[in-house]
């Protein structure tokens, strides 16, 4: 099977950095796209165990809440397409649990005053490639993304997120929390693209990465493209290890070092988990992360 070039950086940088694109094999879908509409009871929970394609459509002024829990012992590809009509509100939760190899592509189109909320959690995984592209086509569209990933051992993740502003006074807000340990490696490419005509648009992205080891590798590539003058764009990243003074202070309060690392790692992920308003899904996440329940 031929490899497909994925997660292409819109403005290439030095090839030696290894962030310009990812090449992976795309698994073929054996069935037609699964269609989800607001007529189904919310939340719509979907267990994804094989390569699949999804079409999600929200009619004008309607609301739709979809949860995709993606878990398999074999490699797979997931392709999700979302169209939100004027004034529609769509929320998508995607959980990737310890997949040996996966490729996920998400494309979202927002009409006038439509909103899209993405909550995405990656729990381990041998080799995951994820591309999220959101096109704010209509005026006053809104996009928020709360992303988190917990990678250990030799896990690898290549994450590419694009917020393309086309409509006037559109907004995007992106936050990513990362925890890396062992020899885990992660690439995050976050692009905010202000197209001509997107006057009054605002976009921001922020990453917080906690590195629990000397052999991990975290690469962050924030990109802001601008073809319109009257826009506001910002990005920032906080990447580092636990401060020795912080560890000493907590140990002096009777907290063992192992528990300190656990608490700090949990804080990076909890912001995304708290946005999942579905108890059965949260219970599965707590179990996968070894957290017990949310009261611990």
Evaluate the radius of gyration. 19 Å
What is the count of β-strands? 18
Which class do the helix and strand fractions yield? mainly beta
- The SSE order reads EEEEEEEEEEEEEEEEEEHHH
Query: Residue share in helices?
Result: 10-25%
Q: N-to-C terminal Cα separation, in Å?
A: 46 Å
How many helical elements?
A: 3
Largest sheet: 8 strands, parallel
Strand content: over 45%
Tell me, rounded to a whole number, the average pLDDT.
90
> Can you tell me the overall shape?
globular
Task: Report the oligomer.
Answer: single chain
Count of structural domains: 1
pLDDT < 50 runs, ≥5 residues = none
How are the strands of the biggest sheet laid out side by side?
3-5-7-9-11-13-15-17
Labels describing this entry:
mainly beta; single chain; 8-stranded parallel β-sheet; 18 strands; 296 residues; 51% strand
Q: Could you walk me through the main structural features you see in this protein, from its secondary elements to its overall organization?
A:
The protein is mostly beta strands. The chain has one domain. 12% of the residues lie in helices and 51% in strands. It has helices at residues 244-252, 257-273, 279-289, and strands spanning 3-6, 22-25, 34-37, 44-48, 52-58, 63-70, 76-84, 89-97, 102-110, 115-123, 128-136, 142-151, 156-165, 171-181, 185-194, 201-212, 217-226, 231-240. The strands form 3 sheets. An 8-stranded parallel beta sheet has the order 3-5-7-9-11-13-15-17, with no helix packed on it. An 8-stranded parallel beta sheet has the order 4-6-8-10-12-14-16-18, with helices on one face. A two-stranded antiparallel ribbon has the order 1-2. The longest helix has 17 residues, at 257-273. The mean pLDDT is 90.
């Amino acid at each position: 099977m031929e490899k497909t070039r994925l997660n292409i950086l819109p403005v290439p940088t030095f090839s030696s950095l290894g962030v310009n694109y990812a090449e992976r094999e795309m698994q073929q879908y054996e069935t037609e796209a699964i269609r989800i509409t607001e007529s189904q009871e919310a939340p719509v929970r979907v267990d994804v165990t094989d390569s699949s394609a999804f079409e999600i459509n929200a009619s004008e002024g309607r609301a739709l809440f979809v949860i995709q829990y993606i878990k398999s012992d074999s490699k797979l590809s997931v392709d999700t397409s979302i169209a939100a009509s004027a004034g529609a509100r769509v929320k998508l939760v995607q959980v990737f649990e310890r997949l040996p190899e996966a490729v996920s592509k998400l494309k979202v189109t927002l009409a006038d005053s439509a909103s899209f909320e993405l909550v995405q959690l990656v729990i381990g995984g041998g080799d995951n490639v994820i591309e999220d592209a959101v096109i704010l086509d209509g005026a006053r569209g809104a996009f928020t993304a709360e992303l988190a990933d917990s990678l250990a051992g030799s896990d690898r993740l290549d994450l590419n997120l694009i917020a393309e502003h086309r409509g006037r006074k559109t907004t995007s807000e992106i936050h990513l929390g990362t925890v890396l340990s062992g020899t885990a490696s992660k690439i995050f490419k976050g692009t905010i693209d202000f197209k001509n005509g997107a006057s009054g648009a605002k976009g921001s992205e922020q990453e917080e990465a906690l590195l629990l080891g000397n052999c991990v590798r975290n690469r962050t590539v924030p990109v802001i493209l601008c073809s319109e003058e009257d826009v506001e764009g910002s990005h920032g990243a906080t990447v580092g290890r636990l401060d020795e003074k912080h560890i000493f202070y907590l140990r002096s309060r009777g907290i063992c070092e192992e528990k300190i690392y656990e608490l700090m790692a949990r804080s990076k992920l909890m912001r995304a988990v708290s946005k999942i308003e579905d108890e059965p899904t949260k219970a599965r996440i707590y179990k996968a992360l070894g957290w017990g329940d949310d009261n611990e």
